[in-house]
Amino acid sequence: MNDVLVNNMDLFVKHDFFSKKLIDNIPGIFYVYKQVGQKFLLFAFNKQHEKITGFDAEEALNKEPYFFVQDKDHEAITEALEFIQIRNHVKQVYGSIVTKEGDVIPHVFEGYRFEYKSEMYFMGLGTDISDLSKAHEDLKRERLERGRKEKELLTLTLKDKQKEAVLTSISKKLDALKQNAKDKDVLKAVSKLSEEINSTFIFSEDNWQKFEFLFNNLHETFYENLLGKHPDLTKSEQNYCGLIKLKMSTEQICTTLNISKEGLKKKKYRLKQKMNLDKALRLECYIGKF
C-alpha cells in the first residue's frame, strides 16, 4: 500500500502539481482528498501526516476526514466540506486530530478544491496549534483568576454591608434613647455603645492591608505608576484611587471610606486639583489609564 501512496503522490508530481520534497518538509500535515460520490476519501498525504497521526498508508488511505478527528469536531468538518463544494476553498476549520495512540492534538485546517482529469479533489494543510490552544487556556485561566480576585476585593470592601444596615438601625434607636434618657449612667452607657457601633463602619487598617495585598496582585504596577506621576499623594488618596480603579460605584466608595456623597464629591474635587487635571477630564478615566 505504500507504493499506492507513492504512486498517487507521484501522479501529481509528474504533472508538476507539487514538489514531493517540498510537501514532505511542510511543518504541518498535507493531504489530498478525492471526491467519490458524496464522500471525500484520503487519496495522498505527506510524511508529516503519517508521523503526526500514526497511521500509515494502508491504514489511512480511502478514509474520510472524520476518521482522523474527535467526534465533537464532525459537525465542523461536515460544514467545511459543504462550504468547499460551494466556494472551492475553506479556511480556519478548527478540530483536534486523534492519533493512533489516542493522543488529541488541536489543529486548524484549510482546503482548496480542484479538478484533475474530470475528477474532483481538494488539498489542504493542517497546522498544529497546541501552543496557541495552551496560550488560550492560560489566558482563560488568567481571566478567571482575575475575576476571582476582583470579586474577593469587592467582597472584602462590601462584606459588612448587610451588618452595617442592621447596626445603623440600632444606632438610630440608641440616639433616640439618648434623647430620652434621664439617668446619667444609662446615658453614658448608651453613648459608649453608640460610639462603638459607629466605629465598626470604618474600613479597618487591617482590611486596608488586605485590600492592598489583593489589589497589588491584581494590578501589580498601578500604585508604582500612579506615584511615579503623583508622588505627593497621601495614603488615603491612594486608597481612593484604588477604589476608582476597581470601578466601584459612588455608593460603594462612600460605604468603604465611611463618608457622605457630599464628602466624596469634595474629596474628588481636591484630588483633581492636586493632580492638576483639566476640569473636563473625568477622574475615573484618568485613573483607569494607570
Automatic annotation (TrEMBL):
SUPFAM superfamilies: C-terminal effector domain of the bipartite response regulators, PYP-like sensor domain (PAS domain). NCBIfam families: sensory_box (TIGR00229). GO terms for molecular function: DNA binding. This is PAS domain-containing protein. Residues 20-82 form the PAS domain. It comes from the Bacteria. Gene3D superfamilies: PAS domain. One of its GO terms (biological process) is regulation of DNA-templated transcription. InterPro entries: PAS, PAS-like_dom_sf, Sig_transdc_resp-reg_C-effctor. It comes from Formosa agariphila (strain DSM 15362 / KCTC 12365 / LMG 23005 / KMM 3901 / M-2Alg 35-1).
